Amino acid sequence: MTTPEYQSEHEAVAAYALGILDDAEATAFEVHLAGCDLCAAELDRLGGMEPLLATLKEFPGPAERPLRPAPPSMSERLIDEVAMRRARRRRRTTYLVAAAAALIIGGPAIAVVATSDGGDTHHSAQVEAHPTSPAEDAFFNHMTQKVAATDATTGVTATVGTEKKGWGTHTVLQLKNVKGPLKCSLIAIGKDGAQETVTTWAVPKWGYGIKDSPHKEAEYPLYVHGGTAMNRDQIDHFEVRTLDGKALVDVPA
Description:
This protein is α+β, with helices and mostly antiparallel strands. The protein has 2 domains: 9-106, no CATH class; 130-252, Immunoglobulin-like (Sandwich), CATH 2.60.40. 30% of the residues lie in helices and 30% in strands. It has helices spanning 12-18, 23-33, 37-47, 50-56, 74-106, 134-141, and strands at residues 111-116, 123-128, 145-150, 157-165, 168-176, 182-190, 195-203, 222-228, 235-242, 247-252. The strands form 3 sheets. The protein has a 4-stranded antiparallel sheet with strand order 3-4-5-8, with helices on one face. It has a 4-stranded antiparallel sheet with strand order 7-6-9-10, with no helix packed on it. Strand 4 (157-165) and strand 5 (168-176) form a beta hairpin. 22% of the residues are buried. Residues 11-39 form the Putative zinc-finger domain. It comes from Streptomyces crystallinus. The chain crosses the membrane at residues 94-114. Keywords: Membrane, Transcription, Transcription regulation, Transmembrane, Transmembrane helix. Pfam families: zf-HC2.
């Protein structure tokens, strides 16, 4: 193997038997093992020592045992190897935990939320301090086309972002100024009149995208994503409607 953690490819057999190699190291050792009778025989021998190996996984590190003047035995080298690997992984885990804690304490610096002034594709941006969802991330970073519309009767505003895919069209809906409780769906209407449900969701009583709402969560738009087998050029428009058939807003494709 090319990994610097072992002076010889043959020395990795014990770590492999203990299951403490990472994926890349294990793969490299298995390539070596396929052509090495010595390591294959040693691995077979270690296969009958499962109780001992299980004990070695929890054995204290070399710093916790008195030094021995004699050359280390196989078992001692196994113990030292396990201790070294466990210590390295503990340090690595500590760094990751510290980094995660910093993110949790600091939180996301900003989350960009789109706003629309009506039924065109013009968007302005404002900064909001709230966590982003996968759908929201896709809306701002992956949707190559966005169209917005506001229904004059319901007052609901919807922006539909679309992204061309090999399987059809990936779609993200941004919905604002809608109150619940409601159960809704986004329907893709084809130019040939075909209809496909892109996604469904529920609106809580306090709603989404309600300006100056006393309920904090209601201030932010709803973002949901889904997909349709239709290609983008086959879609005439999208309809947001309740599951009982009430139309909330139509958005041109």
